[in-house]
Amino acid sequence: MELKISYENGYQTISLDDAATEALWVALSVEDEDLGKDEKSIQEAFEKQFNRPDYNNWHTFDQHSDYNVDVSGEHFLSPFYNPEEELDAEERYASVCRLIRECLKPEWAELVIAVNIDGESIRDYADRIGESENNLSQKRKRAEKKLKEILEKRQI
Predict the structure, then answer these.
(1) Which of 17, 37, 52, 71 has the smallest set of CB atoms within 10 Å of its CB?
(2) If DSSP states are collapsed to H, E and C, what string results for 64-108?
(3) Whole-number Å distance between alpha carbons of 7 and 68
(4) Farthest CA pair distance, the chain
(5) Running DSSP on this structure, what letter comes out for residue 155?
(6) Are 148 and 112 spatial neighbours (Cβ–Cβ below 8 Å)?
(7) Which residues contact 13 (CB under 8 A, 6 or more apart)?
(8) pLDDT digits (tens, 9 = 90+) for 45-65
């Protein structure tokens, strides 16, 4: 069987032997009224599931980006995925947050963590907790100064 696969601006054709055709027929869940495994119904099912214009447009747009937004969990299948790196990053984040919480009072610590580490804007944080931006900016300055003093004493 010859299977047409949409690629870039055209199609590529690959040849499939009988075993691959059978596996593809099962994988695509092709249900032909005659219960036949004809090439036309396999190609149509493949077109519906994989040769979609919306996917191809996304791929064209995203193929040169430096990031991959993954919402499906497929990054676990990537040869570049290293779960130890993810755990190390989580542990470093947790230890930094723990250190900040030890050094500052809770209100200041949560502000510094949210704004300085998590990257939340002062405006968004102020809206979320119901305080004024100006008040939080002043608290943040005092908290950063206090944290700097404590860390210098500890020589961290």
Answers:
(1) 71
(2) CCCCCCCCCCHHHHCCCCCHHHHHHHHHHHHHHHHHHHHHCCHHH
(3) 19
(4) 81
(5) T
(6) no
(7) 2, 3, 4, 5
(8) 777 777 665 555 555 555 555
